[in-house]
Amino acid sequence: MPETAPSPDAPASTPHQRVLVTGGAGFLGSHLCDRLVAQGHDVICLDNFFTSQKTNVAHLLGQRNFELIRHDVTEPITLEVDRIYNMACPASPVHYQYNPIKTMKVSVMGSINLLGMAKRTGARILQASTSEVYGDPTPEHHPQTESYRGNVNPIGVRACYDEGKRAAETLFFDYWRSNGVDIRVVRIFNTYGPRMHPFDGRVVTNFIVQALRGEDITLYGDGSQTRSFCYVDDLVDVIMAMMEHGGNAGGDPETFVGPVNIGNPGEFTIRQLAEKVIELTGSSSKLVELPLPKDDPLQRKPDISLAKEKLGWEPRVPLADGLQRTIAYFRSVDLGSFRKPTD
Ligand code: NAD
Ligand code: UDP
C-alpha cells in the first residue's frame, strides 16, 4: 500500500497508475506530483533542474511511491509508464529567452522522445501547451477560443517558445493520427501560486518580490496590457481531469483530446495587478514605467467554454485569495537561497 492516503479528490474510477511527470520539480509539475502521490499513484518526477530546485519536491523524497530522476528531455530515456504529463519547458520569458535554441529543442525533441515512449508503452500523454500559441491576438479574437489560429511572429524573441509549443502540438496530433497515440493537449493561460521561481521575471513574482522588498514595481509599458491569472490548484484540477477524460483516444477517435483552453477568464490590466499586490502586501512601493518588451501581447483572456462543456470545470479561486496565498509563500522562503538559472 502507498504510504500516503488517497486524496478525497481522487476519482474512484482511476486505477493505480505509473505516472511520469516531466518538469516535475517545476512550479506546476511539483503541485501535480503532490496530487498524484496523494492519490497513491507511482510517480516518476523527471527534471534537469534548469529553472527549478529540488526543494519544490524535497518533501516527497521519502515517499515510497515517489521517485526523482535528473534527466534532460531532449535526450531519449526508457521508462515503463501508463501516463505521461509533459510539463518540461522553461516557461517565463526571461528563462526561455536565455537559450532560445535549447527552448525550441525542449519542445520539439522532448515531445518526439516522449511521444515515442507513449507509442512504445501505450501510455496516455498530455502536453502542457500554452496561450502563447495565440501570439498577440487581434481584438476580434478576444477572448481567445481554441479555433483561433493565432498571430505569432515566427522570427521574434518569443518565437522559440511560441513556435516550439506550436510544433509540439503538431507532433502530438500527428502521432495521434498516424500512430494512434493516446494524446491530450491543454493550452494553459497565465498561472501563479506558491513555488514559482522568485526570479523568473514573470509579472506575479516580480510584483510580489518587489513589494515585499519595498522596491519599485516595474510596469512594462503603461501597464494597460491585460492578462488573466489562474491559481495553481484550479489548474492542477483541470489538467488531471483532462488526462482522465474519455477513453483511449488512439482507439476511439470520438474521444475529446483538445486542444482545450485552461485558465481563469477574469481579465486584469497589469496596472490593476500591481495595485492589488501593493494593497495585499501593505507595501510602500511605487509604480514605475519601463519599456514594453518586444512582441509582448496586448490582451490575453481565455474563452473556457470548451473546458466547461467537456470537463465540467471552471476555476474557483479568486485573484485576491490566490495572491494572498502566493504572498504568504514568498514571505516564508529565503529569497537569497534561490539560484537564478540565468546567472
Ligand atoms: P517551471 O519553469 O517552474 O517548470 C518547468 C520545469 O521544466 C522546471 O522544473 C525545469 O527545470 C524543467 N525543465 C526545463 N527544461 C528541461 C529539460 N530540457 N529537461 C527536463 N526538464 C526541464 O514552469 P511552469 O510554470 O511550472 O511550467 C510548466 C509547463 O507548463 C511548461 O511546459 C510551460 O510551458 C507550461 N505553461 C505554464 C504556464 C504558466 O503560467 N505557469 C502557462 C502556459 C504554459
Ligand atoms: N510585466 C510587467 N512588469 C514585470 C514583468 C512583466 O509589466 O515586472 C508585464 C509583461 O510585459 C506582460 C505581462 O506583465 O505584459 C505578463 O508578463 P509575464 O512575463 O508574467 O508573462 P507573459 O508575457 O508570458 O504572459
Strand tally, please? 13
Q: What's the CATH C level of one domain?
A: Alpha Beta
Quaternary structure classification: single chain
Report the uncertain regions: 1-12
SS field, number of helical segments:
9
Widest β-sheet, arrangement of strands:
3-2-1-4-5-6-11
CATH topology of one domain: Rossmann fold
Instruction: Work out the helicity level.
Output: 25-40%
Strand content: 15-25%
Spatial gap, N to C terminus: 43 Å
**Order of SSEs:** EHEEEHHEHEEHEEEHEEHEHH
| Cα shape | globular
Cofactor: NAD(+)
GO cellular component, one term: cytoplasm
Protein name: UDP-glucuronate decarboxylase
InterPro entries: Epimerase_deHydtase, NAD(P)-bd_dom_sf, UXS-like
Quick recap of the structure?
The protein is α/β, with parallel strands linked by helices.
What does this structure look like?
The N terminus is likely disordered. Strands 3-2-1-4-5-6-11 form a 7-stranded parallel β-sheet, sandwiched between helices. A two-stranded parallel ribbon has the order 7-10. A two-stranded parallel sheet has the order 8-13. It is globular, with a radius of gyration of 19 Å. Helix 3 runs parallel beside helix 4 and helix 5 runs parallel beside helix 7. The longest helix has 22 residues. The chain has a domain of 220 residues: Rossmann fold, CATH 3.40.50.720. Helix content is 34%, strand content 16%. It is an alpha/beta fold and 343 residues long. It starts with 17 loop residues before the first strand and ends in an 11-residue tail after the last helix. Nicotinamide-adenine-dinucleotide binds next to helix 1 and strand 5.
